[in-house]
Every structure is written in structure tokens, then in C-alpha cells.
Design brief:
The complex is a heterodimer of chains A (206) and B (427). Chain A is mainly alpha-helical. Chain A is 74% helix and 1% strand. In chain A, helix 2 (47-77) runs antiparallel to helix 3. The radius of gyration of chain A is 18 Å and the shape is elongated. Chain B has helices at 2-21, 24-27; strands at 43-44, 83-90, 107-109, 112-116, 121-125, 131-134, 157-158, 163-168, 171-176, 182-186, 196-197, 202-205, 209-213, 219-224, 235-236, 240-245, 248-253, 259-263, 272-274, 277-282, 285-290, 296-300, 306-313, 317-324, 329-335, 342-350, 353-357, 361-368, 375-382, 388-393, 406-408, 411-415, 420-426. In chain B, the strands form 8 sheets. Chain B has a 5-stranded mixed sheet with strand order 1-30-29-28-27, with no helix packed on it. In chain B, strand 9 (171-176) and strand 10 (182-186) form a beta hairpin. The longest helix of chain B has 20 residues, at 2-21. The termini of chain B are far apart. Classes of the chains: A mainly alpha (206), B mainly beta (427). At the A-B interface, strand 1 and helix 4 of A face helix 2 and strand 26 of B.
């Protein structure tokens, strides 16, 4: 992976992190009022249209960007990984891929007027498997980066798999989604910053 | 060999697991809204003070579904803001096998409200709710109400020449609207559904026959019809009478009774006729057909296992209730301006139904709240967004369950199963 691609991936990662936070802003904050019924065709560019059409599309872009950022970091550092770190990187990447697919599938299913029970169940199952793979993978990977002295990347990779479910569990109120998305946004912004570094020198990650 | 068997069993297990999930698709409503209506402050029908009208409301709701075509459409407008109970009257009901809970849905016209029970008809003043008369015993037709929103007794109809026409267990009886005295009776049909009365004729569907009567009770024609036992009235347009028969829909010339067409469509809802188009629901969806020929026009469905029932048709909107096999129902508002319907909004109704509509509102009978505190209520949704505008709450006990209301101009008349008649209007 050459430097130009790495920088593009870094920019993508930063944008994806910001986009993740943006799409998690509670719809009420930009004018979507609570409705008693489900409206099928909201007016173009109305708050409900933004919430129903634009936000899911941006969310899909964000998920793809997050995946690109993580994959680019692992590709860049692959040669410096030890055996355990390579396995944890694979676990984290495959888990995150599954989580991404599940998120996209749930967004698509949730955006359809006819709710597909089978589709939602399948997406949840894939997401569950993804979480089981991603959490230990990211924790081990973060631990490796910490041991290599990369505090920003290591710390954020180690914190995000714990912070997201904890915040998701304790989160209350309309902004709970935003609070949950914040660690993801911060982590991928840091990953992007790491990819954009011009003074990068490969260091062994044990 | 072992490997093959294992592979086969694994595959069979996967197929069985997916197969068992398959029927789930039709078990739930296709409406993404899954929350019951939550009005801010429901108005209690059974408690609180009443404020009588200075002048009674105008408008007519002369038959069970509002119009001879069963459209459920009222040209009047309903209040959108604060509501006031104008009067409340309790009827004396006979004891029945259903615990005396035999009040029909109300009909209203020409300054009076008419309500039937299992034995007689009651007339009340539309302005004050005072009882004007009670008929002698005529035994209106009763039915086994399967759903909480169905009345046990068929509603009377306001007929031509100042007559109140009632489907009874042994025929059709006409009462004088001024004093409730029996004027004539046609005994050649049993268990007649709520009659449909037009300017020049009365149509009654009973066990085995569709009967057309003149305003004076003389028989114009009769046709043998194997109708279902749920006592739904026929739908009548200017030229055609449509009957949901066991073999499908049948269309008869309104004047001569000559059979014009038959259709293989088996309706499980009542049939509606509006603007030359007929509407009926069944397990395959909501169907539209030509009233003149019976030919199919379109079918609107939202997946297998989801029946459509209770159509209400206004000039710009079709409302219908989607009833999944194993879950709560949802009301769909379908735009009909383009010919084929397109969904505008949908809303969860649970064990409810829709009963009537104006140009701007549609009324549903459903439950508010959950568990033992849930109460049957009439809820108003706006036409454009499905916003809950107001709710009129009956109660949780069956005697306080509400029937389909009559919609007038600026007023709603509601009966409860236990015999309370309530008029509600704007402030």
C-alpha cells in the first residue's frame, strides 16, 4: 500500500469518524417531530426525509469509510505485526466487516416500508457474530499498539469495544445514540490521523 | 457415507430452521409503526358534565356504514380541537345471552338518533338526547360479535317516506319515524342484515335471499343468494346491488333484480361501492373492481398472510385495515387520486378497526393503553399525516366498549355495548 493510498484512507477514516457522529444526531434536533403514524413519502428535503433517506445513506458511507480506515491501518502495519497481532488484526477486521454488513442490512431493512423479519433476524445474527470477533480482536490489537508505544491508536482501539456497549447500555434519552457513536468517531479520527502522519516509521508491534 | 449423511442432516436442519422462520414474514403487520395511538387527553364518554347544543348538528348517517354504498364517508367536517360531551343517555336494554350488551351502532337523520337492541329500536332527540320513543318488540337481527369493535345487533336504517327500516329475525320491519309504530313488515326473509335504504327502494340481505322492497313494503324483486352468516349489508350504487355471496361477489340490477355479473372474488370484509368502483378485502389484499361489470381493476396487497378488511372510501383516500395472521392490525391510508392506490401513511391499531371518515379525518375504534387499564375508544387520525387529533374513551369493561359511531357535521354519535348513547361536538 503506497503512501498516496494510505493518505486517502486516512482522510476517509477521519471523514467516516465525523460522519458517524453526524448521522447519530437525534432526529428531533433537526426538526423531526414525533409522529403518530408512519408516513410513506415524506416531502423532499423535509426533516423527516433527511432522517428517513439521507441519514441512512450517509450512515452506509460512514460504515464503508470506517472499514476502509481500519483495513488501511492494518495493511500498513501488517509487516510489523507479530504472529498474535496478525491473528487479532484478522479477527478485528473480519468482525468489523460483519458488523458493517449487519449495520448496512439493518439500515436497508429498517428503511423499507414492509419490515422483513427474516432480513432483520439474519442481520442481527451476523452482527452478533461480528461483535464476538471484533471485541477480542480490537482489544488485543490495541494492547499491541500500546506496547509498541502508540498510545493514541492503542488506547482508542482498546477502549472502543468496551465503551460502545457500556454507553449503549447506560445511555438514556434521545441523545443516547450520539453518545454511543462518539467513541467510534474519536477512534476513527485518531486512526485517520495516524494514517496521515508523514513521519511514520514502521515499528514492531509485538 | 457418514460424511454424506451428516452433510444431508446439516442441510436439512438449515432448511428446516429457515422454513420455520418463513411464516413469520406474514405474522406481523407490514406497517413500520408499532405503537398504539397515544392521544394527549382522551375525552371520557362516560363521565363529566354535558353541555347541550344550542342548535343541533346537521348531516345524515342513515345506514350502518354511512351511505348506501357502505363507504363510511361523511361530507360533514368533524371538530379538530377541544371536544365536549353534549349529551349522554342510558337505554334500558333487555337481558340477552350476551349479558344484555346488545346495543347497535347508531344511525342519525332529520334531528333524531336511532339505536337498536336485541328486542326493539330506540329513537332519541339529536339535540338533547331525550328518548322520543321505543318501538314494540320486533327482535332485530343479532350476530355473534367476533371482534371487540363489532356490535351484537344490526343497526336500523333511515328509509324513505319517514320510515325506520330494521332487519329482524323474521323479516324487515318499517317503523314510523315519528312515533315508532310498526307501519309494515316483510316476513319472507330471515335474519336480515342492516337494510340499505335509498330514495325509492330498500334492499335487505337475509338468510338465502336478497330482497328489494318499495317504500311501502311491497316486494319489488327477490333473488336467491347464499350469503355468509355475518350479516353484512349489501353495497348499493345507483344501478347495481353488490352482494358478498359464498360463491363470490354478485351484482344485480338495482331496478329489475336481474343478475348483471358474478365475480370469483371472495370478500371477507363488507363490500363498498363508490364512484363506479367496488372495493372488498380478503386474505389476498384489498381489491377494486368495476361496479358495472365486476371486472377486476387492481389489487393492493402487502405480503402473504396479511388480510385487508373494513374499507372506508372517501373521494381522495381509501382507508383499510391490514390484519396479519398473528399480530395486531394496522390502518393504511391509500391515496386514490392516481387511480391505483399508493400508501400515504399507516398506523398501528391492535385489535381495532376503522369505521368512517370525512374529507380530513378518519375514525378508528381501538384500545387505548395496555393491560387491565386499556379502554376501548374512538380515535381520530388526520388524513394527510395520520396524526392523532383526539380520542373519545369508553371503558375497559365490555358494557363500555364503543361501537362504530355515526358521523354528522361537527358531531359524533357513539353507542356503547351496554346501552349508553353519547353525542360529542366541538367547543
Amino acid at each position: 500500500m503506497d503512501e498516496r493510498h494510505t493518505r486517502v484512507a486516512g482522510t476517509t477514516s477521519v471523514l467516516a469518524g465525523c460522519l458517524t457522529v453526524l448521522v447519530s444526531v437525534p432526529p428531533r434536533w433537526y426538526g423531526v417531530s414525533g409522529t403518530d403514524s408512519y408516513l410513506f413519502d415524506p416531502v423532499l428535503f423535509s426533516p423527516l426525509w433527511i432522517s428517513r433517506t439521507l441519514v441512512p445513506a450517509l450512515a452506509v458511507l460512514a460504515v464503508v469509510g470506517l472499514l476502509v480506515g481500519l483495513a488501511a491501518l492494518l495493511l500498513r502495519d501488517w509487516q510489523s505485526f507479530g504472529r498474535l497481532r496478525r491473528w487479532s488484526a484478522l479477527l478485528a477486521l473480519i468482525g468489523f466487516l460483519a458488523l458493517s454488513l449487519a449495520t448496512v442490512a439493518l439500515l436497508v431493512v429498517g428503511n423499507q416500508s414492509g419490515t422483513s423479519v427474516l432480513g432483520a433476524l439474519f442481520a442481527l445474527a451476523v452482527g452478533g457474530i461480528g461483535a464476538l470477533l471484533f471485541v477480542p480482536g480490537a482489544l488485543l490489537l490495541g494492547y499491541g499498539y500500546l506496547r509498541a508505544g502508540n498510545w493514541a491508536v492503542g488506547g482508542s482501539l482498546a477502549v472502543v469495544p468496551i465503551a460502545v456497549p457500556v454507553l449503549g447500555y447506560v445511555g438514556v434519552g434521545p441523545a443516547s445514540g450520539l453518545v454511543t457513536a462518539l467513541p467510534i468517531g474519536v477512534t476513527w479520527t485518531l486512526l485517520g490521523r495516524e494514517l496521515l502522519r508523514t513521519d511514520f516509521e514502521p515499528r514492531s508491534v509485538p | 457415507m457418514d460424511t454424506n449423511r451428516r452433510r444431508f442432516l446439516r442441510g436439512a436442519g438449515a432448511v428446516a430452521a429457515l422454513g420455520s422462520l418463513g411464516p413469520l414474514a406474514g405474522c406481523s403487520s407490514s406497517c413500520p409503526d408499532s405503537n398504539p395511538p397515544a392521544p394527549e387527553e382522551p375525552v371520557s364518554l362516560l363521565a363529566g358534565a354535558t353541555t347541550p347544543w344550542q342548535s343541533p348538528p346537521t348531516g345524515r348517517w342513515p345506514v350502518e356504514y354511512g351511505t348506501p354504498g357502505n363507504t363510511g364517508y361523511s361530507r360533514g367536517s368533524l371538530p379538530t380541537g377541544e371536544l365536549t360531551v353534549r349529551w349522554r343517555t342510558s337505554l334500558s336494554l333487555p337481558d340477552t345471552d350476551a349479558g344484555g350488551l346488545s346495543t347497535s351502532s347508531p344511525v342519525a337523520a332529520d334531528g333524531s338518533v336511532y339505536v337498536a337492541d336485541a328486542e326493539r329500536v330506540h329513537a332519541l332527540s339529536l339535540a338533547t338526547g331525550e328518548i322520543e320513543w321505543r318501538s314494540d318488540r320486533i327482535d332485530p337481527t343479532t350476530r355473534v360479535a367476533t371482534w371487540g369493535y363489532e356490535a351484537d345487533t344490526v343497526a336500523p336504517a333511515v328509509g324513505p317516506q319517514g320510515r325506520i327500516v330494521v332487519g329482524t329475525k323474521d323479516g324487515v320491519v318499517a317503523l314510523d319515524a315519528s312515533d315508532g309504530k310498526r307501519v309494515w313488515a316483510a316476513h319472507d326473509v330471515q335474519n336480515a342484515a342492516s337494510p340499505i335504504a335509498t330514495d325509492g327502494a330498500i334492499y335487505a340481505l337475509g338468510a338465502g335471499y336478497l330482497l328489494s322492497l318499495g317504500p311501502d313494503g311491497t316486494e319489488r324483486w327477490r333473488r336467491a343468494v347464499s350469503s355468509s352468516s355475518d350479516r353484512r349489508p349489501p353495497a348499493v350504487s345507483a344501478r347495481t346491488v353488490i352482494v358478498p355471496a359464498e360463491e363470490g361477489l354478485r351484482g344485480f340490477d338495482a331496478r329489475s333484480g336481474e343478475e348483471q355479473w358474478t365475480s370469483p372474488l371472495h370478500a371477507t370484509s363488507h363490500v363498498v361501492a363508490a364512484d363506479g368502483t367496488g372495493f372488498a378485502g380478503n386474505y389476498d389484499g384489498l381489491h377494486a373492481f368495476s361496479v358495472a361489470s365486476g371486472s377486476a381493476r387492481w389489487t393492493y396487497d402487502r405480503g402473504s398472510g396479511r388480510a385487508f378488511r373494513s374499507p372506508v372510501v372517501t373521494p381522495n383516500t381509501i382507508y383499510a385495515v391490514e390484519q396479519p395472521g398473528e399480530a395486531g392490525a394496522a390502518v393504511f391510508a391509500l391515496d386514490r387520486s392516481e387511480g391505483t392506490p399508493s400508501p400515504r401513511w399507516c398506523s398501528y391499531l391492535g385489535s381495532g378497526t376503522i369505521t368512517g371518515a370525512t374529507d380530513e379525518q378518519v375514525l378508528a375504534v381501538t384500545s387505548l393503553g395496555t393491560g387491565p387499564d386499556s379502554a376501548r375508544a374512538v380515535v381520530s387520525f388526520s388524513r394527510t399525516r395520520g396524526a392523532v387529533l383526539w380520542a373519545l374513551q369508553g371503558g375497559s369493561f365490555p358494557r363500555n366498549w364503543v361501537n362504530s359511531p355515526a358521523l354528522l357535521d361537527g358531531a359524533v354519535i357513539i353507542t356503547t355495548r351496554g346501552g349508553t348513547v353519547v353525542a360529542v361536538g366541538g367547543e
